[in-house]
Every structure is written in C-alpha cells, then in structure tokens.
Amino acid sequence: SGQMLLPAPNFASYNGLLFISMDPAAEPLEDFLGDFRFYLDFYTKQSAGGLEVRGPQRWRIKANWKIGAENFAGDMYHTPHTHASIVDIGLFREPKAQKRKDGATYWAHRGGGTTYKLPAGNFEERMRYVGYPDEMIGRIKEAWTPQQQRVVGEDGSMISAATCFPNLSFVHNWPKVHASGRTEVSPFISIRLWQPISANETEVCSWFAVDSAAPPQYKRDSYKAYLMCFGSTGMFEQDDA
C-alpha cells in the first residue's frame, strides 16, 4: 500500500498503439515516428476498426536487447541459414526460399525493416497470394493510401519484419498452416518489445495482432500461423533464441 505509479509526462497513441515518454520535453509522437508511419500502417491499419491483440507472451533470452531489435530491422540473410529446418519442411512456399530471401530493406526516420518480393500481379492478386480474403482486401484498400497500395500493387513488395527505435518490433508473414498437400497460406502479424533486464538478458513481450473486422475463420488461421512461427512455442523463435 502507499505505492503509486509515476505519472507519464508524455502519452500518445498511433493506430491504437500506446506510447509513453518520461521526457516532458519530448517531441510529438508523429514527429518522432516520422516517415516510419508510412510502414507502420501496413501492420496496424487494415480497416477503420483497428487491431485486436492477444497476449502478451513473456519469456527471457540470454542476449542483449539490441540483438533482437537489430535482427528484425534488416537481417535478411539469416533466414535460410538460422531457420534452415523451417525452410526444409516447406513452411513457406516461396520458390527461392532455400537460397535467399528476395526483397529489399528500407530505412525511414525512426524505423527500418525488410520486404519480400511477390510474384507478378495487381494489388488484389498479390494480397490474395499472401492469404488475404477478398472482403479484407476491400477494407485494406480503403485504409491504405494510394502510395501504400503501390508498394504492393506496382512495386510487388510486401512488408515482413521491422523495428521502430529503440525496441519495438513487428512481424508479418504468411506460412502454410494446413494439412500436408494444401498450399493455402495464412498471414499473421506480431508486435513485440525487447525489454532490457541486463546487458546479457532480455525479456521478450510478444503479442498476436489481427484486424478486428477480419472474418472469424481468418482470425483462427492467423493465430495458428503466429503460434507455429513466433511466440514462446514458435519454430522461428526457438531458432532465434
């Protein structure tokens, strides 16, 4: 009894994500995020209804927090090596996954990340390729700006992992989650914090995120995809840890 939380001098939200700064002179959140907001919308703005989340799962790893944050920001080459067993079992259908992760890295003010290169097609065809149903594609087109739509529809790129400085990361991927022989994929989004415990230990807080307006079956498949890949039970996570 008698204990109180310290008041936060600066509190703001962006697409439902809550940000706190203990610096009373900190710049406004949108100025801090800068051009990274363009990419942050891909993870957090798929309809007017916003995200719903599950979690967090929490676990600790024997590593400095910067290792995970930097890995998510642009280490594209580790995928076919660190995650060789996942490539071998065919969790992803990308034809060149065994050799490399085709795509590009980007850096935008307070954040950076990686993309995958998609097969030829227009915006709708490429969104279907990574597993989005038509009813979600329509809402996504309403939520994303024409410039954001062009990243997928004209450039043929799809966001994957990213980090917003200093320790907030995101994952978007689309593994195969159904029984053998089925080729459909299910996209998922994960949000995480790399919380420093010491110089050599980090607490990972991982949330599953999905658009609140998504169909019930999509939500179930997306959650299954997340659990298969990331979180304390995920195959990717075990390799990375």
From TrEMBL:
It comes from the Bacteria. One of its GO terms (molecular function) is iron ion binding. Gene3D superfamilies: Naphthalene 1,2-dioxygenase Alpha Subunit, Chain A, domain 1, Rieske [2Fe-2S] iron-sulphur domain. Residues 52-240 form the Aromatic-ring-hydroxylating dioxygenase alpha subunit C-terminal domain. This is Aromatic oxygenase. It comes from uncultured Actinomycetes bacterium.
